[in-house]
Design a protein that fits this description.
Tick-borne Encephalitis virus Glycoprotein, domain 1, 8-stranded antiparallel sheet, 4-stranded mixed sheet, 2 helices, 36% strand, rod-shaped
């Protein structure tokens, strides 16, 4: 019996050494969670129960439990590197089977999918509607970076904040775009047609009646007048009283694009002093653009940045948690699988429902404490030696008994 008891101790010490060695080996593994060998004593129990004078039968390995404490987050500067600060797991698609990981070292495969080193695809909540902050939390899809060019948008509205000088003298010659003496002031904005090509749109201002604060506005596109004059009327306080939204009609283009039809919002226009100034001039169109970068905010929203200055939401990173994370099945390659012991999956979004925040440009390091593991090694070694000494002692006792004459 002493041999078997000591042998169970040797096996337990060996299991402790293997667990500690595995922890040390993975001290540099991204997202790794250390394990702890846990043991239970063994008693031979009969129907009558355990006698008060019974001696235990040794020890057995009860469980190897993972320790899901937070690891340090190391900055990498790579936008697709992500770390979870708090509870939760990234959800992966492993050929249709869900998998979970804390390792956020993702990259893009040849098809544009965001994957880990094993090719498991990162899951996100798809965008819902046109709002950049609205997502369908009832479904998930693979995060994919579309490398095709973003479509252009034709300019439909220009907002101008400017000041026209009071008391400006009306020009004597009829208005003509190519005659600078026929208007008082002008300002130009670059607009875009439906094909993404730029068009120069110029507003011309001509004083009509300085004592009454009356002006006429004209529009020219690439040197051609569009439509008729639009009146602007200012009161004695220099405030615009006429319709602030000017539309000169559609302008046909000869490049195959749709007619250019721009409305000009001059609601912030004033008539003060004796100088002309343009404070701001903005338009809502843009040209085509190609993917230039990826940004991920703390809530997990993935934004694609394009060379035309626009941003597009590609989805929101999906996170999951479990009532008993220690019950998850270790599948290797920094990935866990669902089990009955782990409980039902709780799916959510970063920062909500107890789930952690996402830090882009960083990776969660292993939570292995090397100093603690080295102490564990010494302890396991001493336990092994002590149990080996028990076997040696039992062998000596047995040999003594055999040698009795």
């Amino acid at each position: 019996m002493s041999f078997r008891t000591a042998l169970s101790g040797l096996n337990a010490a060996s299991a402790d050494l293997r667990t500690t060695g595995n922890n040390i080996a993975n001290s540099g593994t991204v997202g790794f969670k250390e394990s702890r060998a846990e043991f239970a004593d063994v008693f031979a129990v009969s129907q009558g129960g355990v006698s008060k004078t019974a001696v235990g039968s040794g020890v057995r390995l009860s469980a190897v439990n993972q320790q899901f404490t937070q690891g340090n987050i190391d900055s990498t500067g790579k936008n697709l590197d992500m770390a979870i600060s708090g509870d939760g797991f990234f959800i992966l698609n492993d050929a249709g089977t869900p998998a979970y990981t804390r390792a956020g070292n993702f990259e893009v495969d040849r098809n544009g999918n965001v994957v880990n080193n094993q090719g498991h695809r990162l899951q996100v909540y798809p965008q819902q509607g046109e709002a950049l902050d609205s997502f369908d939390l009832s479904s998930m899809e693979d995060l994919r970076l579309d490398t095709s060019e973003a479509p252009p948008r034709a300019t439909e509205r220009v907002e101008a904040q400017l000041n026209l000088p009071s008391g400006a003298e009306p020009p004597t010659s009829p208005f003509a775009i190519d005659d600078p003496t026929s208007f008082n002031h002008s300002t130009t904005v670059t607009a875009y047609d439906s094909l993404g090509q730029s068009q120069e749109a110029t507003l011309y201002f001509r004083s009509a009646n300085p004592t009454e604060g009356e002006w006429n506005a004209y529009l020219g596109v690439d040197g051609t007048q569009v439509g008729d004059a639009q009146p602007l009327n200012f009161n004695s306080r220099g405030e615009l009283e006429s319709d602030a939204l000017l539309n000169f009609g559609a302008y046909p283009l000869d490049n195959g694009a749709e007619d250019l039809d721009i409305s000009f919002d001059l609601g912030a226009a004033t008539q003060f002093g004796d100088s002309f100034s343009v404070t701001s001039l903005s338009q809502d169109g843009f040209s085509t653009g190609s993917l230039s970068g990826i940004d991920i905010d703390a809530g997990g929203v993935v934004f694609a940045r394009f060379t035309n200055g626009q941003a597009q939401s590609l989805g929101k990173v999906a996170l999951a948690d479990f009532a008993n994370p220690q019950g998850l099945q270790q599948m290797g390659d920094n990935v866990w699988g669902e089990t009955f012991a782990a409980g039902e999956r709780i799916r959510g979004e970063a920062g909500e429902g107890g789930l952690g925040m996402i830090q882009s440009g960083g990776l969660e390091a292993s939570n292995v404490d090397i100093a603690q593991q080295l102490v564990n090694l010494i302890t396991a070694q001493r336990n092994f030696q002590a149990n080996a000494q028990v076997i040696s002692t039992a062998d000596t006792v047995t040999q003594t008994i055999i040698n009795i004459r």
